[in-house]
Specification:
Length: 232
């Protein structure tokens, strides 16, 4: 049966006019929300593994982040494609993480780890311990399509500069073109890089369950990728 996922509905017709001010404001101020004790305890469970992998010169930990991984479909696919990297999937939902952990118990993979944690806290903790991911994926759908909810999106949230700081490469995949355009615009403003929005042409299995559903529903899919230039 063909999927029938509805397209994104928004009262925005283009990039939010308040986006540039939000990004520039967050670049000039430090995100001061404290990291929860629970998040620190959860992160401690993988800290040793991350430190063991960390290259003291580059800060890289041979690590790929799947932020907002849901039940882990994308995490497992990334693990198959990158057998020498540690794939860290995070989600704040206990229900989704329970399903992901159950799947990992049934089909163990030594390069997959799941954390039930606030995603912003995970970003701040990685920055605190100076651990840099090789790739950071944002694959879940944007839950805030209304214009007034702009600052709840990653690219207009105070955490965005910290997300850039911990990522060697940052990848967004979505079925909402405006969301992709805003993400690219924010990266341009924050890094001075030229960042574009590209169409995804699926020639291999979809990277996430959401992407599969959107593709089967006939939605256009969009891709944004930014790469940090690291000193030798």
């Amino acid at each position: 049966m063909k999927a029938t996922s509805s397209p994104v509905f928004s009262n925005q017709t283009g990039v939010n006019l308040k986006l540039e001010n939000a990004v520039r404001r967050h670049l000039l101020t430090k995100y001061r929300k404290p990291i929860s004790l629970q998040s620190r305890l959860v992160f401690d469970s993988v800290l040793c593994r991350l430190r063991e992998r960390k290259d003291s010169q580059s800060r890289r930990a041979n690590l790929i982040l799947d932020i907002g991984c849901g039940t882990g479909d994308s995490t497992f696919l990334l693990a198959e494609r990158n057998p020498n990297s540690m794939i860290l999937g995070s989600d704040k939902s206990s229900m989704r993480m329970g399903k992901a952990q159950s799947r990992l118990t049934r089909s163990p993979r030594n390069n997959v780890c799941f954390l039930q944690i606030e995603n912003a806290d995970l970003v701040l903790l990685l920055e605190e311990y100076q651990i840099l991911s090789d790739e950071t994926y944002l694959l879940y759908p944007n839950p805030w399509p209304k214009a007034e909810h702009l600052t709840r999106r990653w690219h207009a949230h105070p955490i965005f500069p910290h997300l850039i700081a911990i990522s060697s490469r940052l990848i967004l995949r979505t079925n909402w073109k405006i969301y992709a355009e805003e993400f690219a615009t924010s990266l341009c403003l924050a890094t001075g890089s030229i960042v574009t929005v590209d169409n995804i042409k699926l020639t291999s299995p979809p990277l996430s369950a959401f992407e599969r559903k959107y593709a089967e529903s006939g939605h256009a899919l969009y891709y944004v990728s930014w790469e940090k230039i690291l000193a030798d």
